[in-house]
Amino acid sequence: MYLVFDVGGTFVKYAWMSMDGNIQEKGKYPTPTKEGESVPEFVESLGQIYDKYKDQGVEGIALSLPGLIDAENGIIRNGGGIKYLKDAHLAELLGTRCDGVKISMENDGKCAALAEVWMGNAKGCKNAAVVILGTGIGGGIVINGHVHRGKDLSAGELSYFFADTLTRKDVDKIFDIDSISDMEEEYEKLPYLWSTSYSTRAFCYQVAVAKGINPKEFNGELLYKMAEEGDPVVLDMLEDFYFTTAKYLFNIFAVVDPDIILLGGGISAQPAFVEGVKRYVEKLKSISMITNFIKVDVCKFGNDSNLLGALYSFRQMYLEN
Asked: Looking at the DSSP assignment, which residues form a beta bridge with residue 261?
């Protein structure tokens, strides 16, 4: 049996799993993100969960993590929203804390992609792309059944696609987005990326401003409630959202030529979103015989995708090589 962690900005979710992906038990606890918390405290929080299961025989620990993950060397090169994890040699530290058990770790977006290739809607596909719309734009590119990381581990970091909102006159306004800690400030000052213009959160921010609603009180659920009520402003803005998302999917297709592109994230549970994006994909694909081969669908797995993908990453690292 295997202990699998999905580390998020708010919660660390964990599961006791068999190698066939069957979840025997699940739990979660708040992610240690308070000021002053550090790598040793983070490792200890994982270790305490390990202690609950070690007498049952933990064959390995698999982790899904935010940021740039050096899976081969077990190092977090950049911790994403958990800043103190930058440059942490997590696999070594956790292995020492947990009696030398084998450790694997992978980026969360890449885990979502692996889950779909293993037993989801990309099963049987050699090449696939997964796009996760949320606070940013996460993603994973799978080539020949394995995650493509790139030389700097940033392959699949789709947040950094430049948006149509960027023009030549805006170039001198660009500065390091990592210097901003407030999401809403990103949307106002740097609306030039896919993540800051048409991620789910960025789009909800735009709609809230257009409707005079406090953005902190607005979310995807309220967005679709207003759409169901026929709000013309919201309906028009949603069409832009679907159209823009479809365009980005064609850019991914042109570079990767995957068997399938899958949409994930909380908003993908809204049938209207998936239908809307597919509608524009159908309209745009007629531009060329080449683009006519694009195939778009929704991810099979929701909240468990990162757990499943992390486990599959462990399997590829230790059991298939």
From this structure: 129, 296
Q: Assign 197 to helix, strand or coil.
A: helix
213-219 long-range CB contacts below 8 Å, 24 or more apart? 215/184
Is 314 within 8 Å of 104 (Cβ atoms)? yes
Residues 6+ apart with CB under 8 A from 233: 207, 210, 211
pLDDT tens-digit series, residues 105-148: 999 999 999 999 999 999 999 999 999 998 889 899 999 988 99
Q: Which residue matches tokens 């549970």? A: 269
Which CA distances in Å does 86 have to 68, 134, 209, 279?
A: 9, 22, 34, 41
Q: What is the pLDDT of residue 33?
A: 78
Cβ pair 212, 182 in contact under 8 A: no
Q: In this structure, what token pair is assigned to residue 24?
A: 């025997």
What is the spatial distance between Cα 50 and Cα 58, in angstroms, rounded to a whole number?
8
Tokens (6 digits) for 219: 């979310």
Amino acid identity, residue 39?
V
Q: Which residue has the tokens 């699940």?
A: 26
**Which DSSP state fits 168?**
G
Q: Is residue 94 within 8 Å of residue 46, measured between CB atoms? A: yes
- 3-state helix, strand, coil split of the chain in percent (to 5) is 50, 20, 30
Report residues of the chain scoring pLDDT below 50.
Answer: none
Contact 140, 310 (CB under 8 A): no
Rounded to two decimals, the pTM is: 0.87
CA distance 274 to 270: 7
